[in-house]
């Protein structure tokens, strides 16, 4: 789980860097090379907020999937234990 989280975190950072580069290019500021804070201050805050909301939604979906799969695993484990006990009694 930790390695999956690290992989997600690094891919998210790469994605955000790509977005920053696109914003720089679209504003014609690529040669000036503004920092992320300067780019945000130049009126792109709504775009960043929208992207953060999208990423948070994806993360929440993944967490719900993880919870569901965990419950399914626990149910399977319980059923398997019941089968083992039944077979041992026979």
TrEMBL record:
Main location: cytoplasm
Keywords associated with the record: Coiled coil, Cytoplasm
InterPro entries in the cross-refs: EABR
Cellular component GO terms, alphabetical: cytoplasm
Native organism: Cirrhinus mrigala (Mrigala)
Keyword Plastid: no
Protein known as: TSG101 and ALIX binding domain-containing protein
Compartments, record wording: Cytoplasm
The keyword Cytoplasm is annotated on this UniProt entry: yes
Region feature (Disordered): 71-90
Domain TSG101 and ALIX binding: 1-25
Gene3D superfamilies: Geminin coiled-coil domain (1.20.5.1180)
């Amino acid at each position: 789980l930790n390695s999956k989280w690290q992989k997600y975190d690094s891919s998210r950072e790469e994605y955000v860097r790509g977005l920053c580069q696109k914003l720089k290019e679209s504003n014609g500021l690529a040669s000036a090379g503004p920092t992320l804070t300067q780019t945000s201050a130049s009126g792109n805050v709504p775009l960043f907020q929208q992207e953060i909301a999208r990423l948070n939604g994806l993360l929440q979906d993944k967490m719900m999937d993880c919870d569901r799969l965990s419950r399914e695993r626990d149910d399977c484990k319980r059923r398997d234990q019941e089968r083992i006990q039944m077979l041992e009694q026979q």
